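Running this now, will post back.
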Amino acid sequence: MLKNNLIFILVNNNSLGFLDTGGGTTFLFRKPELSIELDYPYINDNSLAFLPKNVILFCGNDYWANSIYLFDYINKQFKFIYKIPKNVISYKMLNNKLNYYLFEILFENKKETFLFDTGAALIRNNKNYGVSFLDGKIFDKLKDKYKIIEKYDDDGSPCIIIPEIIVFNTVIKNVKFIRRKKNAFLQFMTKQSGVKHIGAIGGNVLKYFRIICDFKNKMIYL
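Update: finished.
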């Protein structure tokens, strides 16, 4: 299911899993008594408390390993597939460590690398929304150039509105990026992924696409 450009799957009865290609391992963070039944470890992670109460499973990037997955934001379909359709356009996924996948977009008139992040989220008025992130160093260099919305997230984080980016040869206007801490991507996530990048592209951009991600062969198809 798709809600506010974030992806959730049914796990058990009325319980859901949160799909996050930009996250780490897959684990239960609520209802530890289901760990054996669902065959996932339980980790007490309070950082995920922002998710709705019926979400009990965090599906990190290992969930996708060696699989082909359809992210059809337009028709609200998300499923594993086993064959790449004909007449699709291919783009290379950048991958160096673990199961983090990145890709290039045209940002500020030059190619920049971003994390492919279905789990990039903000909390506003106690509701979760898909969004994109920008490293604080990059954000601060642009904050006098473009419109800023202060305290856009419930945690007080501002967002910047970038007038235009080009993703998969598609022009997308007025994209909101939430400011993350300085070096959150330029250093920390770059070290985690092994690929230098400046931010993450999430559901507020991905919502325009029907994307096939071949995590096995490191390709994206449209």
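The chain has four helices and 19 strands. More later if anyone needs it.
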